[in-house]
Structures are given as C-alpha cells and as structure tokens.
Hints:
The structure is a single chain. The protein is an alpha+beta fold. The chain folds into two domains: 2-151 and 263-412, no CATH class; 165-251, no CATH class. The protein is built from nine helices and six strands, in the order ααααββββββααααα. The protein has helices at residues 2-56, 60-96, 99-105, 110-152, 271-279, 287-317, 323-349, 355-376, 387-412, and strands spanning 165-168, 171-178, 184-194, 200-214, 219-232, 238-251. It is elongated, with a radius of gyration of 31 Å.
Amino acid sequence: MSGANSIKHGRGARFLTIDRYLLAEMARPLGLSLLVVLTALILERLLRLFQLLALHGGSVELVFGMVANLIPHYLGLALPAAFTISVLIVVVRLGAESEMDALETAGISIQRMGRIFVVVGVLLALLSIGLFGYLQPYSRYAYRAVKHLLLSAPWDAQVIPGTFIDAGDGMTISARNVDLTGHRMAHVMVHQIDDKKGGTETVTTATAGEIRVDKSAGELQLILSNGVTIQTKPEGQVSSVTFDTLVLGRTFSLEAPPFRIRGNNEREMTLNELWHEASEPEPRRPVNRLLSEFHARLVRAVSLVFLPLFAVPMGLSAKRSQRWQSIALAAIVLVVYNQMIQLMEGFGDIGAINPALGLWGLAVTFGALCVWLYTASKGQGSGLPFEKIYDGMGAVAAWFSRQLRRFRRRKRS
C-alpha cells in the first residue's frame, strides 16, 4: 500500500510540475499578445481622438481620460485572440523542440497536457464576465461622458493655425497664421449660419484678426481688419460688403451642459440591470435587445473555455507546416466566430430569432466542434484534424508565390 501511495504521490507531483511549466511557458506570449493588440487598438483610437481635440479644442487630459476608459473594452476584445495565440505558440514550440515527444514518452497524453489550458480558460471566462458584464458598462459610460465634455466644453478662444475651430452657435473660425497666444491671426476666414434668420450663411475673410474675451461677462469679440463679407440668404440672394474694421460679438457659456444619466443604451447596463429590466412587465427598451446584449456577453465569456480545445490540436498539426499557417487559421476562426455572434445578436435585436436559442445554439455548436477536435487528437502521429487544411493553405501560398515570381520576371523582361 505504501508503494502504491508513493507512486500516486510522485505522479501527482510530476503533473503539478508540468502544469507549472506550461503556465510559465504560456504567460510570456499571453502578456506580449495582449500588449501588442491593446497598443495597436489604443494607438488607432488615440489618433482619432487627437483629431477630435484639434477640431474642438480642449485639454489633452480629456483625450487620455477617454483612452483609459476604453481599456476594459479593448481588453475584452483582445483576450480571446491573445489566449488562443499563446496556447498555439506553446504547443508549436513543444512539438518543434521535441518536448512533446518526451511528455508522451512519460505517459502524459495530449488531453492531460491541455487540462491546464482549459483551467486558464475558465479563469479568463470569469474575468471576461467581470469585464463585459460589470466593468465595461461603467467605463463605456465614462468614455462617452468625457467625450461629451470634450465636444461640449466652452471654447478657450484660441485658434490653431490651419484648423477649423467650432466656436459654437454656428460660427467656425480658421486662420492660416496664428501667434503664440492663439488670439492674433492673419488670413482669417469666418463661416456663420444664423438659424434665427432661416439659415442665412455668412462668409467673412480678412487679412488680420484678433480675439478678445471677457470671461466675467461671458462675451467674445472677434475684431477683423481689411476684409470682405459675403452673405447668402435662404432665397438665394447674395450680397457682399468690404470693410476696414469689423467686430463680430457673441456670448458664450463657460460651463458644458450636464451629461445624461447612465443606462440610456443597453451597452451601458450591467448584466443584472439587463436581466431585471427584461423581466419587468413594461421595460423601457425592447426586450429582444436587452436579452441579445445579455446572452451575447455571456456567450463571449464562456467561449474562452473552448478556445484551447481547438488551439491544442491546431498546434499539434502545425509541427509539419509553417507557423504562419496556424496563426492565420486561428485568426480566421476567431474573426468568423465573432462575426457569427454579432449576426445572431443582430437577428435577436430585430426579433427574427430567439436571442437565447440563437446565441447559445451557436456557442454549443462551436464548443462541440472544439471538443471533437480535442478528443480526436490522440498524439503527434498522422491523421491530425488540421493537417489537410494546412496542406491546402501551403499549396495556395505556393501557387501565389509562383504567380508572383512569374509576374516579376515578365515585368523585368
């Protein structure tokens, strides 16, 4: 009995050591993948937000505040791809360096080796529920609140050269040259639309201009020199006036209007709020939209459990192929699956299908396919599920490579 217990204890310790090793191997690619994807997504949004800042003015801190509130959203988007790629990289590396052979020789099956990845998938699914279900609704609302502050913040009475500045009340100002204060300008253009006069449009150009602001009285004066004003009335009548000095005055608010309360959109509601409102006798929003949002968030979270079940056999099949094929195929699968979730969610929004049946039916189908692929991968021998797909991808890539070489030879000749 003592001998049997020692064997079990040794086997359990060995498995625990292997699990720790696989976790350590997966941690680095997972962290790097998340960092790369998050950085790419944030930089793309940051460029658009700085363009918005240049157009409307405001503080740079507002832009970084909006980006910070987008991190939970982008983290939720990046997590499935980063997790799948990290598992794939670990399995491919173990196969390429013959460590997989050593594990199989030691009696550790592919299914046993992949258990730790499934455990990580469960933990990430719980994290995703927290992100999608509770943190993201608040961060999405905070992002929109900061954006509202940027768009509605009072103009600081400064002009950026070569930029069209919305000064409010239908007035747009632009100047080719501006001094360091942002108040003295050269080659100025002012475009105004007066809704009180039925949409009368006025365009004023001047060789020089100066902005004067009385913040205590909430008054702004734009003093223009040596220019012309062209006015177009709704009836089509056009008139023009030249001037030596023209003063355009207007009042402006020093405070931005308050933002709406959270929950105007179902994406700003937590899972509990979605379920409670959908269960009310007279919900404020369509029940189908509430249930589609509720079930779509849960399906995206639960799907993380299934991702290693197709990443492991995909990595095993990549031993005899190039690494780019497995990464490209994984990206295609994830994109198609995400688009299918969005499609089912859209059908649920309009009431074409039952949101719960459509979304969970898709999740069960995807999960069953992943389980079949996982259980069908008994080892590194022939007959692995993805081998023929990789062979086909390699053949297509080789064909395109030959066509490209022929095209280059023809172009040189």
